[in-house]
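in:
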């Protein structure tokens, strides 16, 4: 007995030492989630034990809502009989879920978009091919299928739901994604604008602005469990695009204070990094950094299993933060973030200065300057014009690699830092080709530096290996992760295509049109084969949707529809060009 007590004291001491060590290793902030989310994670864990892995979707359980108050529901759950391994029988768990929880489908209800017209006046005038026009109208009609509003019962008792009670109707991505998502919404809006659905687009922006008012930043998505991370910041770009088509200055005025808050979020605290270039000049850049160090609630059982190979709680907490930060990037998951691309636990998102995030922030600063000028806020416009000039210089000093003709992610290491200022070294640029390396094209003056020519970037893209028969691959590594080869994703296709167009170079425009044709063809053929638009596509062959990652391939699909419509608006489709593969 004495030995048992001594061992117990020793174990407790070791755990305290481990916990203390964790404090020194994982220094980032943690924004706590809600008691409801914590409880639903326990239901998720019990469901996996009971139902098994086959067909299991962890997200479903944290999207459920309560029929009764939380304390009563928790009490009933704790009283469920447990069998030998601690699990609950299928009949008991089925009974509990049926009595105490509701399906997520009941929280967002269908709503007819107020500005939907089956064939809007002036719709895609450059599309001359009747077959392509018929398809485009079908894609446009999908906005009706994806339109939702928060149900009245959620607005009345929000404490019973993980869904956030947004006031305006939303466009959801589709399938398992039953709530609005941040960066998805930019390409949704591009598609809505092509279909003249201006009020729906404005409503989406107003919802996202309300999240900044409440939390200080736009959440990854409109769920309580997303409150500790954001997503690529493209809200300002949405507002600029809406203004350019509607001239709505009131929307600009109402949104500008929120944009200033969001800009501060990305340029302060843990997101901000100071780095000194080879000439000794200091630059401020930003990184993804989730405010969370536990399993992501929507994937809690998956993250726990991923981290189970790690030896202690300290390393697990670090891994959980890195996985959540990768989710903040939108690229969840990819070898881009891994030091060992065959091992997801080597994800190191917070140790990377990402090219794309800083290009998005450059565009944000340029967009804020533009919007501030519109409403007569000249000092704000001047401030953000200067901020954009500084970031442009930083992007070209830290990320540009003349030899490759690409902007490259930069890995931060403890050895190159002094007093919280990192010192740039060439060997820390990631020399692998990723689609994100070309995102700076999207900001119109990224090639204004004499040493950076659009021709060089175009040539680099063409020879990188990323350009495939059906579009641009995200990476060249086939790891089974969904943001790796052979998958191509709609937002990156559009960003690169539009970036090439903005350069004004004829060679770049020709390449942009070629990529657009490849992408439109694979979307069309896959749609005809499956009857659906898909979240991602296998770009190695025309007419194939993508796979990989931690969930089944999804259909719907918000940003895929938006990119197709935006590309058809830009390029059209001539009568004599075939659309089949």
């Amino acid at each position: 007995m004495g030995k048992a007590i001594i061992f117990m004291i020793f174990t407790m001491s070791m755990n305290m030492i481990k916990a203390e060590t964790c404090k020194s290793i994982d220094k980032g902030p943690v924004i706590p989630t809600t008691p409801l989310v914590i409880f639903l994670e326990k239901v998720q864990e019990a469901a996996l034990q009971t139902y098994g892995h086959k067909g299991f979707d962890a997200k479903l359980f944290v999207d459920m809502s309560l029929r009764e108050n939380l304390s009563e529901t928790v009490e009933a759950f704790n009283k469920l009989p447990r069998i030998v391994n601690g699990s609950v029988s299928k009949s008991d768990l089925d009974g509990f879920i049926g009595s105490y929880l509701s399906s997520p489908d009941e929280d967002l209800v269908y709503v007819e978009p107020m500005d939907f017209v089956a064939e809007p006046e002036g719709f895609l005038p450059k599309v001359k091919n009747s077959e392509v026009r018929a398809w485009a109208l079908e894609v446009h009609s999908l906005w009706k299928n994806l339109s939702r509003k928060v149900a009245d019962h959620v607005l009345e008792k929000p404490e019973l739901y993980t869904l956030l009670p947004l006031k305006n109707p939303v466009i959801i991505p589709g399938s398992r994604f039953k709530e609005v998502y941040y960066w998805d919404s930019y390409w949704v809006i591009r598609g809505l604008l092509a279909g003249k659905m201006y009020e729906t687009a404005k409503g989406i922006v107003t919802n996202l602005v309300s999240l900044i008012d409440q939390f200080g930043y736009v959440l990854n998505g409109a769920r309580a469990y997303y409150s500790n991370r954001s997503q690529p910041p493209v809200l300002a770009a949405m507002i600029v695009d809406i203004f350019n088509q509607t001239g709505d200055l009131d929307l600009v005025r109402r949104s500008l204070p929120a944009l200033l808050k969001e800009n501060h979020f990305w340029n302060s605290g843990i997101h901000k990094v100071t780095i000194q270039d080879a000439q000794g000049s200091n630059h401020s850049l930003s990184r993804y950094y989730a405010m969370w160090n536990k399993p992501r609630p929507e994937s809690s059982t998956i993250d726990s299993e991923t981290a189970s190979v790690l030896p202690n709680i300290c390393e697990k907490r670090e891994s959980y933060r890195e996985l959540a930060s990768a989710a903040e990037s939108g690229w969840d998951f990819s070898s881009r973030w891994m030091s060992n691309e065959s091992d997801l636990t080597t994800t190191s998102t917070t140790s990377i200065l990402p090219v794309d995030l800083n290009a998005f922030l450059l565009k944000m600063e340029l967009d804020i300057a533009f919007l501030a000028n519109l409403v007569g806020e000249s000092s704000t416009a001047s401030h953000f014009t200067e901020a954009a000039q500084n970031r442009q210089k930083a992007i070209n000093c830290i990320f540009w690699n003349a030899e490759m003709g690409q902007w490259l992610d930069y890995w931060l290491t403890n050895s190159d830092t002094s007093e919280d200022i990192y010192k740039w070294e060439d060997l820390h640029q990631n020399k692998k080709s990723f689609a994100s390396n070309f995102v700076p094209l999207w900001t119109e003056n990224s090639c204004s530096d004499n040493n950076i020519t659009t021709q060089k970037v175009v040539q680099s893209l063409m020879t990188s290996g990323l350009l495939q028969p059906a579009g641009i691959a995200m990476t060249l590594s086939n790891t089974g992760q969904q943001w790796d080869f052979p998958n191509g994703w709609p937002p990156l296709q559009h960003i690169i295509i539009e970036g090439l167009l903005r350069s004004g170079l004829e060679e770049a425009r020709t390449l942009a049109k070629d990529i657009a044709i490849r992408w439109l063809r694979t979307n069309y053929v896959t749609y005809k084969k499956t009857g659906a638009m898909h979240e991602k596509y296998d770009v190695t062959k025309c007419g194939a949707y993508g796979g990989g990652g931690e969930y089944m391939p999804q259909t719907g699909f918000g940003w895929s529809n938006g990119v197709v419509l935006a590309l058809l608006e830009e390029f059209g489709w001539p009568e004599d060009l075939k659309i089949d593969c």
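note: The longest strand covers residues 272-276.
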